[in-house]
Amino acid sequence: MVEATTYTLIDGRKISTDIKNEIAQRVAERKQLGKKIPHLAIILIGDDGASQTYVDNKVKACKTVGFHYTMMRFADTISEERLMKHIDHVNNDDDVDGFIVQLPLPDHISVEHITEKIRSDKDVDGFTNHNFGSIISKNPLLMPATPFGVMELLRRYNIETEGKHAVVVGASRLAGAPLSMMLVEQAHATVTICHKYTVNLPNYTRSADILLVAVGKPGLITADMVKEGAVVIDIGTTRVEGTEFAKGWAIKGDVDFKNVAPKASFITPVPGGVGPMTIASLLLNTLRATELRNP
Ligand code: GUN
User: Fold this and answer.
1) Does the annotation mark 25 as catalytic?
2) Phi-psi region of 255 (alpha: psi -120 to 50; beta: other; left: phi over 0)
3) Is 102 among the catalytic positions?
4) Which of 144, 221, 225, 252 could form a disulfide with 202 if both were Cys (CB 3.0 to 4.6 A apart)?
5) Which of 125, 209, 234, 254 is an active site residue?
6) What are the pLDDT digits (tens) for 17-57?
7) Is there a common fold for 34-119 and 144-274?
8) For this structure, is 32 an active site residue?
9) CB of residue 125 inside a 6 A radius of ligand 1
10) Which CATH architecture fits 34-119?
11) What is the C-alpha to C-alpha distance for residues 139 and 149, in angstroms, rounded to an integer?
């Protein structure tokens, strides 16, 4: 018999607001002491609607916490060479503490070339190989933003992780892979990484004390794949179109929330779970980058 449990909903919007308030306080203190105010630059290429929305939210967040920001827009016909030159310029601009290049990029531009061109100490998305590797150092430089947000949720909800079995579904460079390393290094969990070549996925997910899913396949994780009392973190964000949604589309996670939630001890909703934490992490990284350069 499956026993229904009462689960705790992990409220990413609330935690993100708490973090923004803490950052605003630190910015106010820096201002009072005559220290440099954090400055985030955002490079946006082309006019993809979803990217524009993400970037608008980042600008809004900068305003909320009192950061300076600069928007840099380019047409999607820009060459890789010109974009590289521009990144060089921002790398060397002392007033900019951190910057991001919004993804996705047009097909003719290599994400890897662009990412690796960003100075690691200004890479506030935490995308560079250096920052990926620095997860296993005692003093990481700037942590990959989405996994950093997940770790912050686990910490702020006092979720026990030491010695627990964390199963990460998805081994992507920006989410699953760095998250797995952070769970080992910072949360002392025993980690299993599952990916598209994993045979018999439910076999692994059912043994998870903490199940973290970052695949981008709505409804992938069904109730029969989850252990009673598990912590479930849904990192999936897929835009699904449909006339049943007020806006004509909705953001869906990878977890069948309705049926999985009654089995979980803690669970993140989508939207409103991990999503808002990525921006909070970006702001935390920008503050850290500023403090490193201008203590
Ligand atoms: N595109 C979607 N999410 C992100 C993000 O967190 N950072 C950047 N740079 N691009 C994105």
Assistant:
1) no
2) beta
3) yes
4) 225
5) 125
6) 999 999 999 999 999 999 999 999 999 999 998 899 999 99
7) yes
8) no
9) yes
10) 3-Layer(aba) Sandwich (3.40)
11) 18
